[in-house]
Amino acid sequence: MTVDTDTVHTGTSAAKSGPGRVLIALLALALVLSGVLIGVLVSPTDTSPAAPPPDSIEVGFAQDMSVHHNQAIEMSAIALDRSPDAVVRTLAYDVLTTQQSQVGAMQGWLTLWDRPTLPSGASMTWMTDGGSMAGHSMDTADAGTMSMPGMASTAELQRLRRMSGEEFDGMYLQLLRRHHRGGIPMAEYGAANASVPAVSALAQSITATQSAEVDQIDVLMSAHGVDPLPDR
User: Fold this and answer.
1) Largest CA distance in the chain
2) What are phi and psi of 154, to 5 degrees?
3) Which of 19, 60, 185, 187 could form a disulfide with 206 if both were Cys (CB 3.0 to 4.6 A apart)?
4) pLDDT tens, position by position, 154-211
């Protein structure tokens, strides 16, 4: 999705005021609601007579990817409000709007299937042959580090919120790149193994979108003079 940088700049300036923040919140709500509607209308059960079981790939993917996406949405909302770089704000806008809509669709499916909208217990157990990626604990590991691959720790998010200017842009790009790279294997697994076509299609779309955004982030990181963080 290509967004005119002048438009993004105008929206970001407005975001610094009270009405601007309200507009961003309304946009996010609209995206979630539209995604939920799409998730319900494009019913995965159209091609499957029964809702996927609670321990299925489809349910686990929708739950865990919703959690994973929500952190990227949070970081990108901060960047849309705070980044001084119009190109970084455009990236943040794309991430926020795309992933809000995808979360809405996944939450719509879970509601339709009568499954919990959030995971409980260990994450990624639906990746049964995912090796070291499967069965991660959702408990905090150290200073609030979420164990799904690529997730930023609580301390990292706190530092990001305190930053501004060039320093902010550098850390946002680093965290978002690592976050995307952590989510791509989850999406690839969902695309390859989900039996519900709508879930497989969404997972494939996430893989393609985030891979392209990683390439874009690499260019931006070079321009900002920062190096990638190690994957985890």
Assistant:
1) 53
2) -60, -40
3) 187
4) 999 999 999 999 999 999 999 999 999 999 999 999 999 999 999 999 999 999 999 9
